[in-house]
Amino acid sequence: MFGLLKKSLKESIKKITKKAEEKEERVEERPKKVKEKPRKKPKKPEKPKKKEKIERIEKAEEEPEKVEEKPEPETPEEPEPEKEEKRGLFRIREKITTRRLSGKDIDDFFSENETDFLKNNVAVEVLDFFSKNLKERLVEKPIKRTQASKFVSQVFEESLFAIVNQGEVKLEKMLKKKKPLCLVFLGFNGSGKTTSIAKVAKYFLKKGYKPVIAAGDTFRAASIEQIEEHGRKLGVRVIKHQYGADSAAVVFDAVRFAEANNYDIVLADTAGRAHTDKNLMDELRKVVRVNKPDLKVLVVDSLTGNDAVEQAKQFHEAVGVDAVIMAKTDVNPKGGSILSVCYAIKKPILFMGTGQDYEDIVRFDPKKFVKDILS
After folding, report:
1. End-to-end alpha-carbon separation of the chain, Å?
2. Which residue from 254, 270, 299, 369 has the least number of CB within 10 angstroms?
3. Is the pLDDT at 230 greater than 90, yes or no?
4. What residue spans define the domains of the chain?
5. 266 close to 212: Cβ distance less than 8 angstroms
6. Which three-class secondary structure state does DSSP give residue 181?
C-alpha cells in the first residue's frame, strides 16, 4: 500500500540529510585557518618594555602627557586575544558539530523533486504547504551532525501529520447522545460508495449496533438491487422506493423507520453523480435540506489521482462535507490523494477501504498513517 509514495518520501529525507552532511564537511576545513591566527599574534615579548617605560617616566616627570598616552593602549590589548580565542574556538566547535540549512536548500530540494511528488498525486497546494512547513522547522535551526537523519525524519513526520490531522469524528460518542444517527453518503460514480456503505454497516454490526440502509440511489440502473443484495448478505434491513422516486423521501422514510423500531443508525445511499452535474447536485442539496443528516460522508476513490481534489472541493461547496472515506487504498501504490483531499477541504478521513471483503475497512489514524508511509 502506497509503495511509490513511501519510496519518494524516504528518498526525500535522504536528500535533505545529505545536503546537511555535505555542508558540514565544508565547515570542518575552516577551523584550521582560524586556530593559527591567535598563535601568530602573541605580544608576550613586548612585556619587558614596561621597565624601560617606567625609567623614562621617572626621568621625565615633567612630561606627564607622554607617559599617560603610552601605557593606556597597551593594558587593554593583553586580555583581548585570549577572549577572542575562546569565542573563536566555541564558534568553530559549534560549526563542526551543528549545521543550519538555508531557505535555498529547501527550495532546491523541491525544485529537484516536485515532479516525483506530483506523480504520486500530491497536489500543488500541498507541496506549497509542505515547503513552507519545512522551512519554518528546518531553516537556520541547529542540526547536530550525528542526528541529522533523525532530526529531518522527525520534521517530515510532523509536517505530514499537520496535513492529515484534520480532527476526529467520534461516532461512538455521537451514538450515545443521539439515536438514530443519519449518515448520508456522497460520491462520484464508481468511487466505491455502495460497497463502502455495506462495509460501514458491517463495522457497526461488529460494534453491537443496529444499522438500517436507505436505498437513496433511485437514478442508476440496478442500484437498488445491488444495495439489497448487500443487505441480504449482512442481515441488514434496506428501505427502498421505486426507481425515479424522490431520494430525499427514501432517506426520510428510513429515518422514521429507524426511530419507530429502535435502530441506531441510518446509512443513506445517494445517486452517484459527476460533481459537474447541476441537476443531480441540486437533488443532493434537497436530500440534505430535508433530512438534516448528522454526517455527510464523501467516498473518494483513492486511485482517482489529482481529480479527487476537484471532486472533494465541488461536493464540499455544494452540500458541505463532514468526513471522507478513502476507498481502494489496498491497491493504491501512490497515496498522495489522501494528503491532497485532507488538505483541500480540511476535513477528517473517517475510514479507509483496504480490500474486497466487508471486514476490509479500518478507522483512519493520522499518526499511524504517517508512520506507515515513512517506514
Report:
1. 12
2. 369
3. yes
4. 3-27+52-164, 171-374
5. yes
6. strand
Q: How far apart are CA 114 and CA 118, in angstroms?
A: 6
More confident call, 63 vs 264:
264
| pLDDT digit string, tens, across residues 271-320 | 876 655 677 788 899 999 999 999 999 999 988 877 888 889 989 998 99
CATH, domain range 171-374 = 3.40.50.300
Contact between residue 335 and residue 370 where contact means Cβ atoms under 8 Å apart: no
- Identity at 241, one-letter amino acid code: H
Distance, in Å, from the CA atom of 285 to the CA atom of 194, rounded to the nearest integer, reads 19
**DSSP 8-state secondary structure symbol assigned to residue 139:** B
Q: How many residues does the chain have?
A: 375
SS3 breakdown of the chain: % helix, strand, coil, rounded to 5? 60, 10, 25
Does the structural domain 3-27+52-164 have CATH classification 3.40.630.30?
no
Amino acid letter, 166: Q
pLDDT (tens digit per residue) in 138-177: 888 887 777 778 888 888 899 999 999 999 999 999 999 9
For the chain, the average pLDDT equals 80
What span, in angstroms and rounded, lies between the C-alpha atoms of 212 and 208? 13
Look at residues 151, 119, 121 and name the one whose alpha carbon lies nearest to residue 134: 151
The rounded distance, in Å, linking the Cα atoms of 147 and 354 is: 36
Tell if the pTM clears 0.85, that is, is over it: no
Enter the C-alpha cell of residue 93. Answer: 566547535
> Would you state the pLDDT for residue 341?
92
Q: Which three cell numbers mark 11?
A: 528518498
Shortest CA distance to 312 belongs to which of 215, 186, 136? Answer: 186
Q: Which of 348, 351, 370 is nearest to 361 (CA)?
A: 351
Looking up cell 616627570 gives 61
Identity of the residue numbered 56: R
